[in-house]
Every structure is written in C-alpha cells, then in structure tokens.
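Entry 12.
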Amino acid sequence: MFNPEEFAEKTLSETRATVKEERVIAACSGGVDSVTATFLTHKAIQDNLVPVFIDTGFMRLNEPEEVELLLRELKLPIKIVDAKKRFLEALKGLENAEEKRKKFREIFYGILGENARAEGCSFLVQGTIAPDWIETKGGIKTQHNILSQIGINPVERFGFQVLEPLAYLYKDQVRAVAKHLGIPLVPEKQPFPGPGLLVRAIGRISEEKIGMLKAATKFVEESMEGDQCFVAIADDNDEKDGDKIKDLASKFFGIPPKHVKVKVPKCLVTGVKGDLRAYKKLAALTIISDSGVFKPAIEKLVQLQVEIVSKNPDFTRVVYNVTEKPRRGKYLLFLRSVRTRDYMTADVSSIEWDALTRMAEKLMDKCKTVSAVYYDITPKPPATVEYE
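Predicted 3D structure (tokens):
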C-alpha cells in the first residue's frame, strides 16, 4: 500500500543528500506532477530552488498567470520565460507526431539550460512519472521529459543533472502526495501533457489552429466531468479509405450502408498495438437515422470500435459524430473523456448524449470554422490517451 507521508519524508531526505548546497532549477508547468515535484524540492532546499515556467505558446488560456498565482499561494518564487515565438518557428511545417515531440524537447531543454547557467544551477528537478519513461522506452511515443532513460546525457547536452523525485509513481499516487502536502487545487486539476496543445493539434500547427484549440479547451474543461476530459483539433481534409469500415458498421447495426458515412482525415494519430507504437489512421464515423445522427449507447459504439480496429490494421482510433454543420469548414474537433487510475490503460466515459450534444453545439458556436464535433470512442489500448 502506497503511503504518501512516508514517500514525502524519504524524498526530502534523499534530495538534501544529493543536492547539498547546490542550486536547482525546477521545470514547473503548473500541472499536478511538476508542481508536486517543485514543492517537495523547495521543502528540502528552500531558497536554493529556482522554479521556471516556460510559456511555450501551447499552454491553456491564462495558464502562465494562473501558475504564477498558484506558486505564490504556495510561497514559491516563479520565473516566467516567454518562448512562444521560438517554439512556433521551430515547429512550423512539422507533421509527424514524433518529430514534433522531439523538436519540442530540444527547444524546451535548450531554454532550461540557458536559464540554469544564468541562475548558477547544476541540477534540474522535473515531474517525470512512471508512464512517461515506460511509454518512451517502449517505443510507443516520446515523452518530452525523458532523457537519461533513453541514453541522453543531460550534463553533457544541457549542463545539469536531472532530479526526478516522482519517476516511479503513477498519477493516482502523485495526487495522493499532492493532497498530503496540502497543495491547493492541484490534485483535482485536469491532466495536461508536457508539450501542451501541441500534441492535441493533430498534424501541422498554426497560430489560428492553436488559438481555436485554446478556446475550445477552456470551454470543455469547464463543462465536462471525468478522470480526463479534453478536446483535440485536426484539419478537415479526408481521403477515400472508409468503405470497409462503412460495410462493417452497417452490418454491426443492421442498417443499409447508405446510412453510414466515414471520414478519414489525412493525418495519423498515435496508438498502441501489443507493446508497440501504432502511428495509424483515424476513422470519423457518422450513422444517419430518419431523425438525424443515430445515437446508440456509448458502450455499443465502443464495441463497434473494437471490430473496426481489429479488422482494419491501418486504423488505431475511431471517433463518432455528435453534431456537424451542413457546410464544410476547416477543422474537426474531437472530444475525449476517459476513466483511468494509472494512465497505462483507460476506458471511454459513458456520457449522456444530451450532454454531449449540448456541449458540441456550443463548441460549434464558439469555433465558426469547425465542420463537426466527434466523440472519441477508443479506449487505451489501442489508442493512447493523447492523439500524438
């Protein structure tokens, strides 16, 4: 049985013994993991810690200001580095998810190295947790904060040693530690990936695409309930590759194929098949009834997803239409809500259709260039929680 009090006391002692009188920079994004790691390290070494928040441009609306307020409430200093233009320029034109994650890592740690040297810090503390290095070492997807576990020497490359006090914990255990430490709001805060909205803006990025995703994210996080609820965005540019899926869906529900529509965006999304990364296609499914979009039980759609992915190896994720516009727009939005304990596996949340429809219609009102809103009906595996 995990004991957060014992873990905290042991970590404080180990941190003091390792750091001694050296100064430490902390990469603090404001999420559960990084705030908990930062707070623990500050308790151990006090003023020798320099928390840094890097504004990548892929954070949620008002995130830098909210993180600054949170850390002030915790009586922690914070240095905010505005690097939005630097990240955007470096990532323009990149489409492959792994290329985007690796480029993000390069820029992120380059900035941390610059600030560590400026502050005279020889250590970096960060909120790495077990799923981060397990997925990276397993080849499923590169988590940006994994270095030494895959052979990158942070001292040679960036000029600091890395401290990862939470590296063997899972998300539920980190939340227990945060609660024990009395960190306000953080234990219940929606999880957020290190590269932020970069890995929820599928394919190539643009300021417009990220801006729309920020507005949609704010609305969804305030409106949805679940272990993890968020929205992703993709370009509405489909290819003709859905006939087999159309036939399978029509047989599954016993309806004519003409009532089934399958959109296959020209982008790939990250999943997992067996223990390997599956960078495959996404199927956006719509079934039409006499009264509009057919809305069966979510559990039934999850069963259909199993059929689709198992019989179509080029696909790793299925989403289902909630609402759409009569005219085509520039983007598609994907709502995602999952129940999970440790983020190694995740189940799709069974949200009532009335609630999903209301939310999707409001999203369409806010995001004028969106063609349709879909609900992700794919658990982990075969999908990962995030899209890239």
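Annotation: The chain has twelve helices and 15 strands. Residues 188 and 223 are 15 Å apart (CA to CA).
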